[in-house]
């Protein structure tokens, strides 16, 4: 079983407003991410927010830990609920490829250019916990290295929506 996790705990500082609520073709980024993961996962959660179109989890061990805090919350939840893995994406990812699970293959794996998008074994929760409690660099790429995740290259990069200009650039493209 795979748990989907939309990592949505960022401050949206470069965006200027809550980017999770920004819209593409009349749909919020958060609802697009939840709906996309719902097509591949048995259940979807949103981390780092109190309200969302799916059940929410607070970042672990606390807010302000970046995407790793959201992933840690999802991995802990996955372990508690008997899920084998977590498929993660950021709330600010543009449309994901229809064949993303096939591209990623078995956990652990993540996209080389956007490691927030990945498939992580629930059993990696203790390793992520160790990283977050350390003074080591807290990054998705560092976590991927720690657990031996495959870095998957894809032909078409996925847009990362950090500014209103980024949103405007992809707003006219068809959604997956």
UniProtKB/TrEMBL annotation:
Keywords attached to this entry: Cytoplasm, GTP-binding, Magnesium, Metal-binding, Molybdenum cofactor biosynthesis, Nucleotide-binding, Nucleotidyltransferase, Transferase
One GO-annotated biological process of the protein: Mo-molybdopterin cofactor biosynthetic process
Source organism (scientific name): Novosphingobium resinovorum
Keyword GTP-binding annotated: yes
Gene3D superfamilies xref list: Spore Coat Polysaccharide Biosynthesis Protein SpsA, Chain A
Source taxon at top rank: Bacteria
Signal peptide annotation: none
Gene Ontology molecular function: GTP binding; metal ion binding; nucleotidyltransferase activity
Descriptive protein name: Molybdenum cofactor guanylyltransferase
InterPro entries linked: MobA-like_NTP_Trfase (IPR025877), Molybde_CF_guanTrfase (IPR013482), Nucleotide-diphossugar_trans (IPR029044)
The MobA-like NTP transferase domain, residue ranges: 4-139
Pfam families cross-referenced by the UniProt entry: NTP_transf_3 (PF12804)
